[in-house]
Amino acid sequence: MAMRTDKSVKSVDRGEYAIAWALLKSARLSAKLTQRQLAVKLGRTQTFVADVELGRRRLDILQLYDWCKATGTPLAAYAQQVESTLDVLPKHLPSAMKVRKPRESAK
């Protein structure tokens, strides 16, 4: 497997993250869980789940393990899905669109 590196793009902005986010959402949907139901299983808020799925928040390895366990997806299976999907895509995906948090409304 060739490493995907582009020195001009920060890792957080790599287009490949969109694949990882989509697969996390897919795991939730396959488990027939709403964002709120998954949040309860994780002991987090619905906003946390939404932020992960939208790429506003990244998971560390233990949070990823918890997400996979809560959706009934073995962590190794998730990793394999990510790897096999990225292996068939073009070497350099466009940078992920930055998702901005909504601005607070002026009071």
TrEMBL record:
Transmembrane annotation, as ranges: none
HTH cro/C1-type domain span:
24-78
The protein's matches in InterPro entries, at most eight in alphabetical order, are given as: Cro/C1-type_HTH (IPR001387), Lambda_DNA-bd_dom_sf (IPR010982)
Q: Which GO terms describe its molecular function?
A: DNA binding
What species is given as this protein's source? Rhodanobacter denitrificans
Q: Which Pfam families does the record associate with it?
A: HTH_3
State the protein's name: Helix-turn-helix protein
Cross-referenced SMART domains:
HTH_XRE
